[in-house]
Amino acid sequence: MVNLSGVVLPSPLRQRQQGQRTTPPSVRIVHSGHACNVEEERHAERVYTIREGETLELSCLVTGHPRPQIRWTKTAGSVSDRFQDSSVFNETLHIAKILRTQGGRYYCKAENGLGSPAIKSIRVDVYYLDDPVVTVHQSIGEAKEQFYYERTVFLRCVANSNPPVRYSWHRGREVLTQGSDKGVEIYEPFFTQQGETKILKLKNLRPQDYANYSCVASVRNVCGIPDRSVIFRLTNKTASPSIKLLVEDPIVVNPGQTVSLVCITTGGEPPPLLAWISSNDSLPQRSVVKGGTLTLPAITSDEAGVYSCVASNNVGNPAKKSTTIVVRALKKGRFWITPDPYHNDDNIQIGREVKISCQVEATPPEELTFSWLKNGRALRSSERMVITQTDPDISPGTTNLDIIDLKFTDFGTYTCVAALKGGGIPEISIDVNISSTTVPPLFFSFLVPPNLTVPRGKSPLVAREGDTVELECLVSGKPKPIILWSRADKEAPMPDGGMQMESYDGVLRIVNVSREMTGSYRCQTSQYNGFNVKPREAVVELIVQYPPTVEPVHMETRQGLGRPVVMTCRVLRAHPSRVLRFEWLLSNRLLHAGAFDAQRDETEYTIRSLNRDGWGEYTCNVINEAGAGKCTFQVTGKAYPAEFYYDTYSPLWQNRPRVYGFKLQWTQMNPNAVDRIVAYRLGIRQMGLQRWWEQEIPVVGAFSKGELMTHNLTELIKPESYEVRLTPITRFGEGDSTIRIVTYTGEFHCSFEEETICMFTQDKNDDFDWTRHSASTRDTKYTPNTGPSGDRTDSKQGFYMYIETSRPRKDGDQARLISPFFNVAPKNPYGINNPPAYCFGFFYHMYGKHIGTLNAHLKQKGQTASEAPVWSLNGNQNDRWKQAKVSIRPTASFQVVLEGIRGPGIEGDIAIDDVTLEEGECRDPPPNLSAKAPSMSSHIWLLCITVVMTLLEGQR
Predict the structure, then answer these.
(1) Confidence band, pLDDT 50/70/90 cuts, at residue 86
(2) DSSP state of 318
(3) pLDDT digits (tens, 9 = 90+) for 382-402
(4) Is the model's pLDDT at 942 over the cut of 60?
(5) Distance in angstroms (rounded) separating the CA atoms of residues 21 and 943
């Protein structure tokens, strides 16, 4: 591990850095998954290309304090598709085995309550290539001079892909191109409903045209997607499919029966594939398909419909045969009487004709049969009792009983019985009762019209929230109608969720009534009570009383001793609201009570000077006839939690082997809200263990909001991670704790995103300086044909360092950028006999015809003479970022110097980015780089010089 010794704070337990460290968020998206390519789009956003099935991994790099919250969302362009994926609250968006439908625009949003949220986006383009499909179409032309018929074949190739596909045709091993064979025409790709397609036309088939044809689909190996091909064998027997169904049409079955549909092929080359489809969008879940046989076990009415067998072999159009399955059923019986006995001008009279009509829904309708009974005995059609069946086209499933010249002897119960031929389905019977009720002399009414009334005292009905209530309408009439309940005052669902509720006794029972159920309820007679009668209705008012709704329900108030505290409890709504009283309590001890006046909807309690006895839970009860609403205030002197500072530059260091240190930094949330913080309790435990080690960090004096606190954690064991807990302490006691994880990492990384440039410094003895730069802020007068168009990740918002070689710079001018000091941990505590290895890496961009030289030097502490560079490169390396890695073995604390030397002209800008330093030898260094690492002999020579210098210092 390495350390910036210039940043490590000395031994005092705690240091305070002045200044406000609250900063609004900033955000940047980087990728670490299996990207094929990342390119700029509209100078602001990037396109991330990935192959279907690979892993998408996007990281949202944020800065800001307090630590911003991060949220990933996705849009795919259309309103219905917006935010289709669940939001991900994490720095890294990880999608394994990405699908083509998951492409689109991904947004990273960071916010911490300061300023506007920071948002960046990147478009993800998913590349794929499906297997191509070849379809064949044949046509036979008209006779020409009675000698022959022209037979033409079209082979069409289609493949779904992104990016667009390119096609090529082969006959055997021969590549077919336009003009290579007079009997072959190749149409350029065009778009159909199935996507882009390419057609091969074989005119006037010849013997050599009967061969294997292959269509090769290619996306030119983008994302490493290989070409895909399909082969079709064309013979003189090639033919479109034909099939036959071995079933009747239609098939009429009873519910619960098992139905088997058999489909066989009768022709087609290549042999066709069979599939079953249904008019119900999909086959039933319990259906079984085996070869050409479809089996539907225990069929139901919902599974009735048209079932089709489809055969396809990619020659011509698919063959399709269908049959209809009819599941026998009877349902929904109803009756009516003509004339309407409730019509004022057309009362039923003795001696006049009465018609009773009965209707049933039947499947299939042609099997429906009716019979009539009177008092349980079969009734036959006669001159006075005429039984007819209505024309199915006018009123399907309907039978009529006409009673000619109504007499007293016609009293009784008439039953209409509906059945299906062949049985197996339960019958439906409907009873009509003709009673002996009479009305003045010459009139006879055998039906009583319905009547609805609300019992006295049942409207308005007052209930308390949570009660069970019964809304009641008294209903009379023969036959007694069903009552339909609905809301009369607004379009709102009933308690069961529907818009209407049925009641056979006129009572609507509501369990656990709520305040939202207050209002008017309509009771109405059903229209299906046997007559064409205008529905009767009545209205019941329901008033639900409920306790006051108040705010805040719970509120925590933090305050220091000697300060005032004001608590306010506000009434939002209550019923009844005219009688409201309140009482304030502290731990069940009454403090104050009273009643609301007509103009106020809140009550207030004030503590003029808070003392220790004033801490606790305060309750305000607001009371009416229905109960009480409660506001709760927790008055406490607890301090708010500390907020860890995550943007500390290089917080981790190592001065001794096997252990490391960590610079812990934080600010205090709302430090002035309570009494002065006198100390922090620091707890630390190794991940995976239970025991906490604790110590107190004293605080001297007051501090302000946003002031940065620092404490050095030492003696942390490599490579373990630790859980760190920080708790502020005041006169009240402990405040809220906050926890973070400290993770060991053996890497230093700098991408120059901050103005501090990771504590790199400019050499004061060189000719000019390196410049921190971003392509989005580039001067319009920049030198063309040199320098990068973005940082190492191709982002125009990202920063990098570069040397500007325009005038007044001269050939050979040098600019040196010096890293902070890194400490070396000796493996042998008595000396560095075997110096540890580190891998120094960075990305460089050297583009332009006047590019000079880029050197990397190792500068060790105590060293005066300049060594040869450990890495060097010169000349134009093309317009792209490349990576350099070199292993170094320093014997003392060291710095790395990056030196840029101007070439002979202005087109010689050199840029660097993403500088890293890791423990251990470099693994897989880039093969195309020229590195000049010191040999082992130079390390030994350097070691000898170090030992001699140490001895001389000891003699002095």
Answers:
(1) very low
(2) P
(3) 888 999 987 777 778 899 999
(4) no
(5) 44
Is 933:870 a contact under the CB 8 Å cutoff? yes
Q: Is the entire prediction scored with pTM above 0.70?
A: no
Residue type, 562: G
Would you call the peptide bond into 552 cis, given omega within 30 degrees of 0 as the criterion? yes
554-558 vs 627-636, strand pairing mode: parallel
Determine the pLDDT at residue 1: 35
In the predicted structure, residue 437 carries a pLDDT above the cut 50: no
The per-residue pLDDT for 947 is: 39
One DSSP character per residue, 800-821 reads EEEE--STT--TT-EEEEEPPP
Cα-based distances in Å from 148 to 141, 142, 145, 203, 636: 10, 9, 8, 14, 104
Each residue's pLDDT tens digit, 29-78: 887 666 777 665 444 457 888 999 999 888 888 888 888 888 888 864 33
Evaluate the omega torsion of the peptide bond into residue 869 and state whether it is cis, within 30 degrees of 0: no
**What confidence score (pLDDT) does residue 261 get?**
95
Angstrom distance (rounded) from CA 629 to CA 650: 54
Higher-confidence residue of 837 and 146: namely 837
Task: Determine if the peptide bond prior to 495 is cis (ω within 30°).
Answer: no
Cα separation values, 45 from 57, 94, 118, 189, 230, Å: 17, 20, 14, 32, 39
Look at residue 856 and tell me whether its pLDDT is greater than 50. yes
Q: What is the b/e burial string over 664-673, where b = at least 16 CB atoms within 10 angstroms of the residue's CB?
A: bbbbbbebeb
**Percent of the chain surpassing pLDDT 70:** 83
Residue 788 preceded by cis peptide, ω within 30: no
The token duo for 507 is 């009572």
Residue range 355-372: mean pLDDT, rounded: 89
CB atoms within 10 A of CB 75: 17
Residue 185 has pLDDT above 50, yes or no: yes
Coil, helix or strand at residue 424: coil
pLDDT in tens, 595-613: 888 778 889 999 999 998 9
pLDDT in tens, 713-744: 988 988 889 999 999 999 989 999 999 999 88
Q: Are strands 461-464 and 537-551 parallel, antiparallel or unpaired?
A: parallel
User: Are 713 and 648 within 8 A, CB to CB?
Assistant: no
Give the residue, 52 or 528, on which the prediction is more confident: 52
Tokens 């009547």 locate to 451
Q: Distance (Å, rounded) from C-alpha 683 to C-alpha 673?
A: 24
For residues 327 and 255, what is the distance between their CA atoms, to the nearest angstrom? 6
Secondary structure string (H, E, C) spanning 706-742: CCEEEEEEEEEECCCCEEEEEEEECCCCECCCEEEEE
Radius of gyration, alpha carbons of the chain: 45
At which residue do the structure tokens 């022209």 appear?
150
Nearest-angstrom CA–CA distance, 340 and 333: 19
Say if residues 215 and 133 touch (Cβ distance below 8 Å).
Answer: no
Asked whether 55 and 32 are in contact (CB, 8 A), the reply is no
Separation CA 8–CA 822 (nearest Å): 11
- Tally Cβ neighbours within 10 Å of residue 101: 11
Residue pointed to by tokens 């289709």: 84
Please say whether the beta carbons of 799 and 752 come within 8 A: yes
Distances (CA, A) of 173 to 156, 213, 231: 19, 9, 12
Provide the pLDDT for residue 654: 66
User: If we measure between CA atoms, which residue out of 232, 237, 235, 263 comes closest to residue 249?
Assistant: 263
Strand runs labelled E in 465-575: 469-472, 474-478, 483-487, 501-503, 507-510, 519-525, 537-551, 554-558, 565-575
d(C-alpha 244, C-alpha 265), whole Å: 6
**pLDDT value of position 406:** 81
Task: State how far the alpha carbon of 378 is from the alpha carbons of 280, 372, 373, 415, in Å.
Answer: 42, 6, 4, 9
- CA–centroid distance for 357 within its chain: 57
Q: CA 401 to CA 357: how far, in whole Å?
A: 6
